[in-house]
């Protein structure tokens, strides 16, 4: 479109130049006009172009500046005889100016047409580009929105999972902090008791040793006197028998002397002397044997006393170390580490209700207890039981406030059994764990035996080991809920021991 206007403009300019060559006057006039523009400026050209139709431009010489003169107006000639020459000059001037103006307008029109064409093309391109860009942006926005919706759903799931995990761990941390704070006075008191136990135990051990030594020494004195007495008694008997037998022989020999009686008397005397020698040797040997037995009993007693002292001292040291670890919060730290690694759940309402039907109110902090289902500790314990072919394979294990359960969770009787261990931890501390392990290795193990006989012998709940105590609580739940107890006790047999437990006599 712009090219067409430009071609038209060029054609018109070419026609104008041809007409100028055909009209010399117009050519001269154009030269003057150009010279006037170069020397006098555009204002002079404008004044000339704006002059009336009858005005003329004076002839100027090239060496002098052009002078614009205005001729007097031409009077109208008779209509019948117009002056052709006077009318021809204005037509030549107007024709040239018209051509020039036409060229200017044509060039301007062509330029404007080109600008409009270019602008139109640019606008069309911009519209096309904008439409494509808008379509692309809409499509991209749709994909982004779909991605945001997809990621939002997944992110919400992840956020919920992270939030649930974080809340569980934060809740566990809070319970452990409270457990440490609430149990700290009792743990410090246990250390004080440990100190008193050390003094009392040492004094008791020394007193036991002193009593044993005194008894051993008394046995020595009594044994020596007894041995001497038996020796003197034997010697006196020997002398008395010899004198009596000799007197009887002498009387008989004096009454009826004979060689046979003399020979018999000599042989009897030799026998009496030999019996004295053998009696004395026997008495001496008995003294040596008694002294050896006395010395051996003393050594055994002394060794037993030392062993009891060593075992008591080591037990006390282990207990003190355990109590120091408790006072430092190590049990809570271990529970926290385990809880951060594995997923722990709180007790169910059924598990708590089962425990509340057996244990006293306030003994067990149920809100602090956690259950580790399908615990690796159970798997390790089961593997060890198989490897060593032990009679007991762990069905559940309780460490402080964490119950480690097998895959599938806890039955309610087992939950009562394990929560009894939690009650033991609350009352006696973490020492219940080595005590329970020791109980599992004994012949009795979990079996508490005949409770009627035990009660008649004056036994109480505290006289049974930690596993027997837990078995009593488990069986009590069984018999009060229509289930078969593991070790055959009846409710009347269990009642006095459960009463001891509810009185916290562990």
Order of helices and strands: HHHHHHEHEHEEHHHHH
Structural shape? rod-shaped
Structural class computed from helices and strand pairing: mainly alpha
Report the β-strand fraction as a percent range.
under 5%
**Strand order in the sheet with the most strands:** 1-2-4-3
Question: Which regions are unreliable across 5 or more consecutive residues at pLDDT < 50?
Answer: 54-94
How many domains, as an integer? 3
- The mean pLDDT is 82
Distance between the termini: 110 Å
Q: Helical segment tally?
A: 13
The biggest sheet amounts to: 4 strands, mixed
Task: Compute the number of strand runs.
Answer: 4
Percent of residues in helices comes to over 70%
Rg calc: 67 Å
What does this molecule look like?
There is one protein chain. This protein is mainly α. It folds into three domains: 2-73 and 86-130, no CATH class; 166-326, no CATH class; 342-502, no CATH class. It has a four-stranded mixed sheet. The chain contains 13 helices and four strands.
